[in-house]
Amino acid sequence: FPTASRADNDTNDKSMFERASVVTSLPARWKLNPSYMHTFGITENYFIIIEQPLAVGMITLMNCKIKNKPLCSALKWYEKENTLIHVLSRATGALERTFTAAPFFYLHIINQYESEKRDHIVIDICCYRNAKMLDCMYVDAMRNMHKNPDYSKLFRARPLRFVLPMTDKINHVESNWRDNIFERRASARRQSDGTVFVEPELICNLGCETPRYNSRYLGRQYRYFYAISSDVDVENPGTIIKVDTLKKTSLTWSEPGLYPSEPIFVAHPQSQAEDHGIILSAAIYGEGRESDVCLLILDAKSMKEMTRVTFHTPGSVPKCLHGWFTLETPWKNHTSPLFVIIFVSIK
């Protein structure tokens, strides 16, 4: 993994992506149909690769390229195949363990960490029952969503917690480290063929997507994450959610006619608590205000609005999905402090 920024005396003109190197690899279970992967997990000692039963047909993909057809037609959902969760060593790159789970579709992993005794890995994922959610993103599907009674159900993701035992002494194990506070009801059991099947726990009964948290807790035991609602049938679908994974509770913020993007956590410079900071979210307006956009600033602890900055643009602004906050400046020889907020939009 290359560093994101270069030192002043670094004469290497290659970008961080050009300087990247392969640290490990894993053969696909279907050689000509590798699993679609949007992200992977990382802890202090492990990489976590999730092989969901949504595959990319390589032959179909080549035909799509040749015939100039949509690449999405190369995606195939194997509804009778389990999800595989692979754990690989960061030190050696070797495959340590593979777990099986019921089939689910996912785009984003929330976070992952190792237990204090290193005998479990906890991984939290925004899960869908299947990949039909992708069909809901076609323009025709969105225009006619009011005619489809199942539309909202297909779009309904839920945050689930899986506990992966990293010990061979397992027959039927309920997660119970630290008095079962953090992983209540998540379980793992060894099957007759020797594989370990893991069943998740529901973290909260709200649709959560584009999850973010205090980045100091990446790959570490954490308590809070923030997300935007994926429930399109609620009163205010443009809802920002804060989830307490310990108490299994949540706080929300919403405003009618306002549609926020991924909530970005920025820690207070002198923060002591995990949720001491602010939430940044770029939001667009609906209902006749398509040329207005704003940057929301919420208190990350209480989820109350602190302020917002509103802009009027010459034309309508597409909704953005992802964003990033950095104190680093991308311009050379820039000596004053600079706040840079980057948002990625989709048209």
TrEMBL record:
Binding-site list for Fe cation: 38, 108, 322
Q: Which domain of life is it from?
A: Eukaryota
- Give the Pfam families listed for this entry: RPE65 (PF03055)
Q: Which InterPro entries match?
A: Carotenoid_Oase
Q: Which cofactor does it need?
A: Fe(2+)
One GO BP annotation here?
carotene catabolic process
Q: Which terms does the record give in the GO molecular function aspect?
A: beta-carotene 15,15'-dioxygenase activity; carotenoid dioxygenase activity; metal ion binding
Q: Which family does it belong to?
A: Belongs to the carotenoid oxygenase family.
Name recorded for this polypeptide? Bco2 protein
